[in-house]
Design brief:
By secondary structure, the protein is mostly beta strands. It contains five helices and 16 strands.
Length: about 400
């Protein structure tokens, strides 16, 4: 008989080759084909190592695939097991219990605090192997589908294409916890173009997240309900959306610059729904809204909350209306609480090509009403008006109202 490993090598294993296997103690032996051995479920205990040359192995249980620390879970049909992986052990201390690996088809848990699962795909490979694939696919690092096909009513089934949780354990007070962090890395310089609501994706643009609707289907689909929904489950969010002070280009939150946090197209707005119900739906109707119908930049306005005031300007920054103390109101309508002119009121001052007129236009038969305590009743009418006359135009006719001083008529 030739010495071991001196047989003629066969080019491949077809599955019918006969192998001799033995128990670990060497007492019992068995002839088996390669295909029979390949079909046998293997239970490999964890090696305690991470790198292959140091003894690390991949563990498998029948039709379920467990890698790393996930192999500590025995894959039984119960949550009450003696030997548990570290994730199930943590979940077992909560009200919801260790459901994650019990329901998992496959799982990978880090044993060393490293990344539990890594996936990547390159567009250069998609182009290189287009003949083999028959097309040039989108290079997707991780793809997941959750299909809702249970048509029974009522039902408790819910489909999630992706679900994630970040847990903060008691005593953790130094670093935050993130359910997901999406980093957009631009190594190619400035993008070729500008992203706008009318052209969201520009050439070379780098985006952290894009939420689409329809999945690319050309027929049979309908509009989806909402892009982002915040719910309590059962806890609430302290803030719905938060922008870090240095997260937007143009400002650090403490300078005179500007950064756009949200950009929308014309006729898109923000609504506040009322808690009342209509047609059996609570919150169906809006109680307030803000939106823009401006069609040209030259006709637009800007709203600005400044120190101690509120400004309405045109898109060039020129003041149109303000509610604040204003030392030099020129061609503006200024409503102030009292400063410089030392009185709360409405002021109009004429500037270049401006108008000094302030118009009040009640409806037909309407009144201009002012409430003030009446004083000096029964006093003698002065012969002259020390303050001159106030000019009023009522229905096209001019009138003069005499302005008597306090000394003339009394307090």
């Amino acid at each position: 008989m030739p010495k071991f490993n001196n047989y003629f090598r066969i080019p491949s294993v077809e599955g019918q080759e006969v192998l001799v296997v033995a128990t670990s103690d060497g007492v019992e032996t068995l002839n088996a084909t390669a295909s029979q051995i390949a079909g046998a479920p293997a239970d490999s205990p964890p090696s305690g190592e991470f790198f292959a040359e140091e003894g690390a192995k991949v563990s498998r249980f029948g039709d379920r695939f467990f890698v790393g620390a996930a192999s500590d879970y025995p894959a039984l049909n119960t949550r009450n097991v003696d030997r548990q992986d570290w994730l199930s052990a943590i979940m077992a201390t909560t009200s919801i219990g260790p459901w994650a690996l019990e329901n998992a088809q496959s799982a990978s848990l880090s044993r060393f605090g490293n990344s539990g699962f890594v996936a990547g795909s390159r567009t250069s490979d998609a182009l290189k192997w287009r003949d083999k694939l028959g097309h040039i696919p989108s290079s997707i690092g991780v793809a997941a589908w959750g299909i809702s096909d249970d048509v029974t009513t009522p039902t408790t089934t819910t489909a999630y294409a992706y679900y994630g949780e970040a847990w903060r354990m008691p005593g953790v007070n130094y670093q935050p916890s993130f359910v997901m962090e999406l980093e957009a890395v631009n190594l190619g310089g400035a993008a070729h173009g500008v992203s706008t609501p009318y052209h969201p994706n520009c050439g070379g643009g780098t985006y952290a997240i894009q939420i689409g609707a329809g999945g690319g289907h050309t027929e049979g689909t309908s509009d989806c309900e909402a892009g982002i929904v915040f719910v309590s489950n059962p806890d609430s969010w302290k803030t719905g959306i938060l922008f870090g002070n240095t997260s937007l280009a143009g400002t650090d939150g403490d300078d005179s610059g500007y950064g756009c946090a949200i950009s929308m197209a014309r006729n898109q707005g923000i609504e506040w729904r009322t808690p009342e119900s209509r047609e059996g739906v609570q919150g169906l109707d809006a109680g307030a809204m803000m939106f823009s119908t401006v069609s040209q930049t030259a006709r637009g306005q800007r709203l600005q909350f400044s120190d101690d005031g509120f400004l309405v300007t045109n898109m060039s920054g020129q003041l149109l209306f303000s509610v604040l103390p204003n030392a030099k109101p020129t061609n503006t309508l200024n409503i102030q609480a009292g400063s410089d002119l030392a009185a709360a009121g409405v002021y109009v001052q004429k500037g270049e090509n401006g108008s000094p007129n302030l118009g009040l236009y009640p409806a037909e038969g309407g009144e201009i009403q002012m409430a003030s305590p009446v004083s000096g009743v029964g006093g003698a009418l002065p012969a002259r008006a020390e303050g001159g006359f106030l000019h009023l135009n009522v229905n096209g006719r001019d009138y003069r109202v005499p302005l008597f001083s306090v000394e003339q008529v009394g307090g």
